[in-house]
Amino acid sequence: MNKRMIAVGPEQAQPDDRQLIEGCLAGDNSAWEALISRYRRLIYSIPLKSRLSPDDAADIFQSVCLKLYERLETLRDHDRISSWLITTTTRECWRVAARNRRDPQNNSAAGDEDDSIANIPADILMPSEEREKLEVQQAVRQSVESLPERCRELLTMLFYQSDKYSYVEIARRMDMPVPSVGPTRARCLQKLKKLLHGKI
Amino acid sequence: MKCPSFERLIDYLDSRLSDAEAAVIAGHLASNCADCAENRNWYQHVRSVAAVDDTVEPPMWVTRRAFKIPTAQRRRSIASSVGQIIASLVFDSFQRPALAGVRSTETANRQLLYRAGDYSVDLQIALAESGSGNLIGQVLKEGDPTFESVSGLQLHITRDDETVFSAVTNQMGEFKVSGMDQGQYGLRVELSDGDITVPDFPVSES
User: Fold this and answer.
1) pLDDT score, position B191
2) CA–CA separation, A13 vs B49, rounded Å?
């Protein structure tokens, strides 16, 4: 059986957040979709970690994305969009949780407590260790996702899937010779290290 | 010994080497080689970060709904001069004649149906035992079986021209609001090409 070529390819030149925001402001829908795709897991997971329902998480996701869109101009020079998103999403979670406590049946009404929540400092909303953990996780996952396809597939299997695969199993799943797994993984990790330089 | 290759070092850290091979690399690391220690620390850090990453992929419809935000916002700004479409009431379950022989003791939910162009807005109002009102609604567009044009719409429920509740329609165009005081309310639905306004609907017993 012919095995697939093991070219891992060059790192794709992924636009950074600033470039994506510039694209969004210029009316490029694909830039907006790339920006949302980049942070989708981060935004959606914070409400779930806060023990809110999937319905609440979906509403918060939409609400945070709308705020992001409305603030693109001011976020253009923001160093870390992930930090802004964590704060904004956490505030939304607090609002929704406060509403749910007041009226458990209500999943979507706005209340008067919004102003007071808007004034709570970010480090009170979420402990700094938790925030830092989310930012580092975002940086690693984002870098893995921006690797060439074969590297992304291999490192996702190694890092993000609960089963620990043997080289034989990895080779079978990726349709590559077993002796190539180790060197390929090493090359992919080198690329990842380069992408993550200065980020974690 | 000279430094092991990056590949061998990773194999060592992943416990994929024989005891003899592992012992050689462990010995090298114990000699305080700065380069290998840096690679080891980096890999162990990244691996541990990924291992506790429990973030969740959102459902596709949630992501797609957010993708539509720029288009909807742009159309809204272009269409702002179009203004509002005032919805007209076409059905009120409390206004229909009682059936012969049916006693008027029913405490059923009130259903109101409004039309505005191609759109319809269905409101079902129920009063909880506490006396507060619960509103369940759905926005539909004629000729749109996929609900594409009615998902993710922003709604404002107003009283005396102030927004007192807001909601976003789900992927079926549905929304719900509860804990409403009894009284008269207005509803504004933000469409991609204008607004629909339901000027006055009751949340009350009659």
Assistant:
1) 84
2) 24
Task: State pTM to two decimals.
Answer: 0.71
Closest residue in B to A180 (Cα–Cα): B7
Question: How far is the alpha carbon of B165 from chain A, nearest alpha carbon, in Å?
Answer: 5
Q: Judge whether B1 lies within some domain.
A: no
Domain boundary among A125, A157, A179: A125
- What residues of chain A lie within 8 A of the CB of B48, using their CB? none
Examine residue A139 and state whether it is found in any structural domain, yes or no: no
User: Which ipTM was obtained for this model?
Assistant: 0.84
Burial class (CB in 10 A: 0-12, 13-18, 19+), A16: exposed
Cα Rg, chain B, nearest whole Å: 30
- The answer to the question of residue B64 being in a domain is yes
pLDDT tens digits for A84-102? 999 999 999 998 888 887 7
Indicate if A113 and A27 belong to the same structural domain: yes
Its domain, for residue A26, covers: 11-125
Token digits of residue B58:
């959102």
Taken as a whole, chain A contains a residue count of: 200
Query: Which amino acid is present at A143?
Result: S
Q: What is the CATH number of the domain that holds A83?
A: 1.10.1740.10
**Set of chain A residues whose Cβ sits within 8 Å of the Cβ of B7:** 182-183, 185-186
* Tally of domains within chain B: 1
Q: From CA A178, how far away is CA A168, in angstroms rounded?
A: 6
What does the block give as tokens for A125? 């909303």
The sheet with strand B133-141 has its strands ordered as: B88-92, B110-116, B119-127, B133-141, B174-180
Contact B168 A200 (CB under 8 A): no
pLDDT one-digit tens code per residue, B68-93: 899 877 766 655 545 678 888 888 88
List, as one string, the DSSP characters of A104-168. TT-SS---TTHHHHHTS-HHHHS-HHHHHHHHHHHHHHHHHHTS-HHHHHHHHHHHTSSS---HH
CA of B104, closest CA in chain A: separation in Å? 29
Residue A138 lies in a domain: no
